[in-house]
Design goal:
Layout (H helix, E strand, L loop, with lengths): L16 H12 L10 E5 L2 E6 L9 H21 L2 H27 L23 H15 L16 H17 L4
Antiparallel strand pairs: 1-2
Length: 185
């Protein structure tokens, strides 16, 4: 399909994220070939809602940062307008996604895509682009630790206080700073 796209427009409809990512991978190997992705989602009982981005699981770091920023606005609203339990649930979900973003950043940014989970190969030609500093490792450890605290169940005796949206904003800014300091390959 990627080869065919060199000659004419190819449109693919699929439910298979793995196939989509594989097509994107092969398309990226062809100079001058551009890929545009639009997804259709279900919202409540409505199907076929057009969405300009990929689902979270398939998003790269830049898109995930945008998604988390949008989620932070929603989190702030929940904090202002809903119960503490509803805020805790939303904050745990948001922090879970921040943790997933840190994990993806290790693959995509730190290791420059040399090794990817379920990847097609080890991209040894990208090793020259890998530069790891102690600061980067410290940033990852701190970011993963901060976000992981709120994903796992804490002992009631510790009486944990979930971070407010201002702390979430700071944690997202730290992630974004890491992503900018460690660009993709």
């Amino acid at each position: 399909l990627a080869e065919e796209a060199k000659k004419r427009q190819v449109i693919v409809f699929t439910h298979d994220i793995a196939l989509l990512l594989q097509l994107q991978y092969y398309a990226e190997q062809i100079d001058g070939l551009s890929v545009s992705v639009t997804s259709m989602r279900k919202q409540g009982d409505k199907v076929g809602i057009i969405h300009p981005t990929l689902p979270w699981v398939a998003q790269k770091i830049t898109a995930r940062i945008g998604y988390l920023k949008t989620g932070l606005v929603k989190l702030e609203k929940i904090e202002r307008e809903q119960t503490e339990d509803e805020y805790i649930s939303a904050a745990k979900s948001w922090y879970g996604m921040l943790r997933e973003a840190w994990e993806r950043a290790v693959e995509e940014r730190l290791f420059k895509g040399v090794i990817e989970r379920f990847g097609y190969s080890v991209q040894t030609n990208r090793l020259k682009k890998v530069a790891i500093t102690n600061q980067m490792l410290d940033d990852i450890e701190k970011g993963m630790t901060e976000s992981s605290k709120w994903v796992h169940d804490a002992a009631a005796g510790l009486n944990p206080t979930i971070p407010d949206s201002n702390k979430a904003k700071v944690d997202l800014a730290s992630f974004e700073a890491f992503a900018q300091s460690c660009p993709a390959a």
